[in-house]
Amino acid sequence: MGYRLSKIYTRKGDDGTTSLDGKNRLLKNALQIEAVGTLDEANCALGLVLTQAGIDEKMHALLTQIQHDLFNLGGELCPPHRAVITAEKIAWLEQQIDHWNETLPPLKEFLLPGGTPASANCHLARAICRRAERCLVALNQQEKLFTESLRYVNRLSDFLFVAARILAKNENCEEVLWEHQRK
Known about the structure:
CATH architecture: Up-down Bundle
Helix content: 55-70%
Number of helices: 5
Number of domains: 1
CATH class: Mainly Alpha
CATH topology: Hypothetical Protein Ta1238, Chain: A
């Protein structure tokens, strides 16, 4: 049996097209490709978080599972379009958010992204996740996506926000609140 990625370059994309199913060609700026690519960016940002100091085993396992989920979600966008993101995955994110929130002080204002390298990179992953959500919403206007996929990405950005707060807290890093300019 051959390896799945035995040849890295094919030269087929030199004309600005790519394929998600090995048959049909799409422009590389098509919404479907943009969505898959942005999910990949979010996944890469999570990989960056995982390289930082201050990541305990549980956080590492949670973020690694999310990396797998993001790959699976990207696969949902490729023919033959099989749903892999389930309501249980969303409930899992919500349970973790609720558990963490019990240990955090309530927010009185928005936070400035930052803190430790791990928490700052988690905020970056959150922002990329929000962009992925916007791509999925746009794609959903063209072709109907699985509802759970949209819900998952929306909840994932919330998860990453709270994870960034936890990472800062675990390193005893004070959060910086936005200084709202009031008139």
